[in-house]
C-alpha cells in the first residue's frame, strides 16, 4: 500500500537529492568537454565555495534576508495582525485580510512587477508620492527593498497560523489576567505565548526554510547591483546557468541543503523540549 507513495518520494525527492550530491562531487559544466566527461573532484567544490568571497557574501546576505523578512518581519507582522484584527471593525478586518491574502496568492512575477512599478527610479509610485523622482531604491537599498517586499508578500501564512493558534487560548485566562492588571507584553508573555509557543516555533521553522530557498529576489534585483542582493538561490543560479559551473552550483546547493537540515533539527529539538 505504501509503494506508490515511496515511488513518488523516490522520483521527486530522493533521486534529485542524490543526483545533486553526485554532480556536486564533479567538475560538471553546462558546455564543453566537462559536460560530456566530467571528472570527480570529491570535496573540491565545497572547499572552493568556503574560500570563495562571493559565496560568503551570498551566505551573509541570505542570513540577513531570512532574519529580516521571515524570523522578524513575517513573524511580528503576522502575529500583530492576528492579535489586533479580531477587535477591529468588520470593514477593516475584511479589507486587511483580503489585501494580505492577495499579496500571498498572486504569482511571483506579478508581485515583482508591482514592486517594480512602486520602486522604479523614473516613474515609480513611491517617488511620485514622496515628490522625489530620482531615488533608485532597488540600486541604493536592494536588501532593504527585498526584506520589505518578502515581509509584505509572505505575512499571510503567519497571520493565518497565528489566528488559529490564538483561538486556542482560553478566554477565561485572558479575562482573568486582564482583571489582575496584565496588559501588553506582560499579558502576551504570561498567558498567550505559553499556549502558542509550539505554533510560533513551527511557523518560524517553515518561513525560515521557505525564505532561505526563495528565488523571487532574482525577479526584483537579479542579485545586483554588484552582488549586493545575491542571496544563495540566486548565487546558485548564476553559477550554474550564467557561469556554466553546474558541479560547483550543485555543491553549493548541497551546502544549502545541509544548512536547512541543521536549522530543521535545531527547531524540532527546541520544539520537543517546550512541548
Automatic annotation (TrEMBL):
It comes from Nocardia pseudobrasiliensis. This is Carbohydrate ABC transporter membrane protein 1 (CUT1 family). It comes from the Bacteria. The lineage of its organism: Bacteria, Bacillati, Actinomycetota, Actinomycetes, Mycobacteriales. Belongs to the binding-protein-dependent transport system permease family. Keywords: Cell membrane, Membrane, Transmembrane, Transmembrane helix, Transport. It is found in: Cell membrane. Its main location: membrane. It is a multi-pass membrane protein. SUPFAM superfamilies: MetI-like. The keyword RNA-binding does not apply. The chain crosses the membrane at residues 6-25, 58-85, 97-118, 130-152, 246-268. GO terms for biological process: transmembrane transport. GO terms for cellular component: plasma membrane. Residues 60-267 form the ABC transmembrane type-1 domain.
Amino acid at each position: 500500500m505504501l509503494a506508490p507513495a515511496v515511488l513518488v518520494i523516490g522520483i521527486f525527492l530522493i533521486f534529485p537529492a542524490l543526483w545533486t550530491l553526485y554532480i556536486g562531487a564533479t567538475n560538471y559544466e553546462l558546455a564543453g568537454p566537462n559536460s560530456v566527461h566530467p571528472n570527480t573532484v570529491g570535496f573540491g567544490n565545497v572547499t572552493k565555495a568556503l574560500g570563495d568571497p562571493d559565496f560568503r557574501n551570498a551566505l551573509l546576505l541570505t542570513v540577513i534576508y531570512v532574519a529580516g523578512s521571515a524570523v522578524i518581519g513575517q513573524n511580528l507582522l503576522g502575529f500583530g495582525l492576528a492579535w489586533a484584527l479580531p477587535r477591529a471593525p468588520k470593514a477593516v478586518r475584511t479589507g486587511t485580510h483580503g489585501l494580505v491574502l492577495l499579496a500571498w496568492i498572486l504569482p511571483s512575477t506579478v508581485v515583482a512587477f508591482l514592486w517594480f512599478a512602486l520602486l522604479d527610479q523614473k516613474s515609480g509610485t513611491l517617488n511620485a508620492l514622496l515628490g522625489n523622482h530620482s531615488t533608485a531604491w532597488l540600486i541604493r537599498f536592494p536588501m532593504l527593498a527585498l526584506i520589505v517586499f518578502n515581509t509584505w508578500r509572505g505575512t499571510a501564512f503567519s497571520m493565518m497560523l497565528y489566528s488559529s493558534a490564538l483561538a486556542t487560548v482560553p478566554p477565561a485566562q485572558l479575562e482573568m489576567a486582564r482583571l489582575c492588571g496584565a496588559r501588553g507584553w506582560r499579558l502576551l508573555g504570561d498567558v498567550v505565548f505559553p499556549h502558542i509557543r509550539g505554533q510560533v516555533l513551527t511557523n518560524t521553522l517553515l518561513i525560515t526554510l521557505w525564505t532561505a530557498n526563495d528565488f523571487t529576489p532574482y525577479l526584483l534585483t537579479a542579485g545586483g547591483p554588484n552582488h549586493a542582493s545575491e542571496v544563495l538561490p540566486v548565487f546558485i543560479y548564476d553559477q550554474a546557468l550564467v557561469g556554466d559551473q553546474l558541479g560547483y552550483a550543485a555543491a553549493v546547493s548541497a551546502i544549502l541543503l545541509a544548512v536547512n537540515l541543521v536549522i530543521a533539527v535545531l527547531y524540532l529539538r527546541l520544539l520537543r523540549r517546550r512541548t
